[in-house]
From TrEMBL:
Coiled-coil region(s): 339-366
Residues the entry annotates as binding ATP: G60, Q61, T62, G63, S64, G65, K66, T67
Source domain of life: Eukaryota
Keyword Cell membrane: no
This protein's name: Kinesin-like protein
Domain Kinesin motor: 1-330
Subcellular location: Cytoplasm
Keywords annotated in UniProt: ATP-binding, Coiled coil, Cytoplasm, Microtubule, Motor protein, Nucleotide-binding
SUPFAM superfamilies: P-loop containing nucleoside triphosphate hydrolases
């Protein structure tokens, strides 16, 4: 969220407020445009692959295009993602392609492990969306849907969702499958629970661990021998005015919880921009607890503000722009995640020694065979 060069300025006609942003995409912007891809997908993929935490949040009123732009609703991605990507596919499928482009290019240098988690926060409850085993029929009724998961923090400050399933991903198809599974579970639940898919915050988290290959140890400085990073992709629930919606019962409760969590997110943003980092109220909602690492932490964070061009939505648009304007003022300090615990370091070195011994044995066998 740190300011970058060349911020375009938009202003409503007359003496209305003026907002500045890093980039503005208008109604003619295409998902596939290089600009959109470079600014959104590539920028955070690059940081993530370099070993920094990264995150992207889509904020805006209901129906403003958050899911469409993020590409959370991956539908048609098959094993060969490059061939199946379509003009309308959003950021996530494009990000998957650049991510696997990197892992292929770095395969001679690092052993890379990727894992994905997919959760939603609905009515202040954290639900796991990866509830099926890989390969299982994802249309089947999810067994553990509705289980309440807890958010915890490691001593290092790293936030994690306790008990959330992690799927190892070895190919773009694995990641697309995980997304499709999560979406199917969300859709099943939304059928049961009053269309809640747009009433919940959806969070995809990708963890990457990179361990240098023994043969490359001498080529790279020690701080690049081990990298661990986390990428969070967040499709926030739609912000809505409470008054005038006529919502009652469950719908009203959902609205209250969405507004409360978005308000708490706004409060954290305010505290961070006021420089009062000791009293950032992360603990006031599940959403802010999960996003603690990404907000005001050591992550590269990008907020996407989705707005409607219609006059009737002027007030909502103004609110979204104000929200994004404040978020933009947060200054994160990027930090490389290359620290290992003593135990991890011992295991890492042991694995290196084993690999070197294996390589030596193979070489010796080859020499003897000659
Ligand atoms: N740039 C766009 N081009 C074409 N169609 C779009 C675009 N943005 C959104 N849409 C369409 O508008 C509808 C609403 O968009 P979307 O579901 O992405 O909104 P949302 O902000 O995620 O809503 P909610 O808060 O309810 O989840 C969808 O049918 C989507 O396909």
């Amino acid at each position: 969220m740190e300011p970058r060069a060349m911020a375009p300025v938009i202003a409503p006609p007359g003496d209305g407020p003026v907002f500045d942003f890093d980039r503005v995409f208008n109604m003619t912007s295409q998902q596939a445009s290089r600009d959109m891809f470079r600014t959104l997908a590539m920028q955070i993929t690059e940081k993530f692959c370099q070993g920094f935490n990264a995150s992207m949040l889509a904020y805006g009123q209901t129906g403003s295009g958050k899911t469409y732009t993020m590409g959370t609703a991956i539908e048609n991605m098959g094993p060969d993602v490059n061939k199946t990507i379509s003009k309308a596919d959003g950021i996530i499928p494009r990000l998957i392609i650049s991510l696997f482009g990197y892992t292929a290019a770095a395969a001679d240098i690092y052993d890379i492990e990727l894992k994905v988690q997919y959760i939603e926060i609905y009515n202040e409850q954290v639900n796991d969306l990866l509830v099926h085993a890989p390969g299982q029929n994802i249309e089947a009724a999810p067994s553990s849907m509705g289980s309440k998961l807890d958010i915890r923090e490691h001593a290092s400050g790293e936030v994690f969702v306790e008990g959330a399933n992690s799927m190892i991903i070895r190919s773009p198809a694995d990641l697309a499958y995980a997304m499709q599974m999560g979406n199917a579970v969300r859709a099943t639940a939304s059928h049961k629970l009053n269309e809640h898919s747009s009433r919940s915050h959806a969070i995809v988290t990708i963890h990457m661990e990179q361990k240098i290959k023994p043969s490359q140890m001498k080529e790279f400085p020690k701080e690049l021998h081990y990298l661990r990073s986390k990428l969070q992709l967040v499709d926030l629930a739609g912000s809505e005015r409470a008054k005038g919606t006529g919502a009652e019962g469950k719908r009203f409760e959902e609205g209250v919880n969405i507004n409360k969590s978005l308000l708490e997110l706004g409060n954290c943003i305010n505290a961070l921009t006021e420089g009062n980092r000791k009293h950032v109220p992360y603990r006031n909602s599940k959403l802010t607890r999960v996003l603690k690492d990404s907000l005001g932490g050591s992550a590269e964070t990008l907020m996407l503000a989705c707005v409607s061009p219609a006059n009737v939505n002027y007030e909502q648009t103004l609110n979204t722009l104000r929200y994004a304007q404040r978020a933009r003022a947060i200054k994160n300090s990027l930090k490389l995640n290359n620290a290992m615990s003593l135990q991890e370091e011992v295991e890492f070195l042991r694995a290196m020694v084993n690999k070197l011994e294996d390589e030596n044995a193979t070489l010796r066998a080859q020499v003897l065979a000659k």
